[in-house]
Amino acid sequence: MDTKFRSSCPISSALDILGDKWTLLIIRDIMFGKKSTFKDFSSSGEKIASGILANRLAKLETLGILHKGKLPDNKKTVIYSLTQKGIELLPIIVDMILWSDNNLGDHVDEKMRELAKKIRLDKEAFVNNYTGHLESLMAAP
Amino acid sequence: MDTKFRSSCPISSALDILGDKWTLLIIRDIMFGKKSTFKDFSSSGEKIASGILANRLAKLETLGILHKGKLPDNKKTVIYSLTQKGIELLPIIVDMILWSDNNLGDHVDEKMRELAKKIRLDKEAFVNNYTGHLESLMAAP
DNA sequence: TAATTTTACTTCTAAAACAAAAGTAATAAT
DNA sequence: ATTATTACTTTTGTTTTAGAAGTAAAATTA
């Protein structure tokens, strides 16, 4: 279950963790979709298979990108939230939104194109503000 | 061979193209490694298999991210270069470098950590300058 | 309180993707 | 003319993924 690094290149190492079709979608769902449970992630538009979802959640927790918690009054529902390490993935995701908006334009959802437009006004400010927002949602230590 | 999109989400769509362990390494090699031929990419540290390399190069060309060209005096060697669409992947790669430097620190190559430090001084300026550099290397239309 | 539903998974099997090695055809160098 | 190089393709075995079905504990409903 642990991640092996192919080299000491930071890009290669990031891809050893993030380089598949699902990992960053889970992060997206937490960041932008207000999702936090297994069921939430299962019901996303791209239809991730439950086995893959379980595998990715476990990996992300092991890596310290997600935190696995519970609510005080519920013993069943598992709440996944972003750690600082996870929140710091925001710039990568933002840049993917911008790249797709620029280069796959006509096929991208209109609401998301609006977001891209807003981000472009001041990317640094958006990332800083939204990072603050995500930090305010972090699980208490 | 053509890429199918799972949804109209820009993040999901970016991952439909970039979401594997190899695609962005080819882009990295062109951007930062002065590589341009099949042999160049084959000899990268992460040891990509030739079949996968051929598959990814074809996909990236089909998508208009890479341009496949030749040198005037050589009929054999194929030169791959970035298109504008490819150059625009730079911010994503830069953010991966920064994320890995911050979060996988001790395991990342020291030279690359120096680069990360430099980028952090002024990320926007670095991206703008380096984009200009990459554009100056583009294949003539 | 008993029955039903929900949640977070696990297991199973078939299909697809990947890795490693070997092979090929055209071109270039010797 | 021979050998080496380049850019692949092909083959075979392994790993990963997709989709469906199943399970145990907890929560809700009747």
**Could you spell the SSE succession of chain A in H and E letters?**
HHHHEEHHHH
What would the average pLDDT of chain A be, to the nearest integer?
A: 96
> Unreliable runs of chain A, pLDDT <50, ≥5 residues?
none
Oligomer: homodimer
The helix tally of chain A amounts to: 8
Rg of chain A, alpha carbons: 16 Å
The strand line-up of the biggest sheet of chain A is 1-2
As a percent range, the share of strand residues of chain A is 5-15%
Query: How far apart are the first and last residues' alpha carbons of chain A, in Å?
Result: 25 Å
Q: How much helical structure, as a percent, in the residues of chain A? A: 55-70%
Any idea what the shape of chain A is?
globular
The most extensive interface between chains reads:
A-B, 46 and 46 residues
Alpha-beta content class of chain A: mainly alpha
Largest sheet geometry of chain A:
2 strands, antiparallel
- Strand segment tally of chain A: 2
Jot down its keywords.
57% helix; 141 residues; globular; 7% strand; homodimer; two-stranded antiparallel ribbon; DNA-binding; mainly alpha
Provide structural commentary.
The structure is a homodimer of 141-residue chains. The first copy, chain A, is mainly alpha-helical and 141 residues long. Chain A has helices at residues 10-18, 23-32, 38-42, 50-62, 84-87, 90-103, 110-121, 123-136, and strands at residues 66-70, 78-82. Chain A has eight helices and two strands; from the N terminus they run ααααββαααα. Chain A has a two-stranded antiparallel sheet. In chain A, a hairpin with a 7-residue loop joins strand 1 (66-70) and strand 2. In chain A, helix 6 (90-103) crosses helix 7 and helix 7 (110-121) packs across helix 8 (123-136). The radius of gyration of chain A is 16 Å and the shape is globular. The two termini of chain A are 25 Å apart. The model of chain A has no long low-confidence stretch (mean pLDDT 96). At the A-B interface, helix 1, helix 2, helix 6 and helix 7 of A face helix 1, helix 2, helix 6 and helix 7 of B. Chain B binds a DNA duplex (30 and 30 nucleotides) through helix 3 and helix 4.
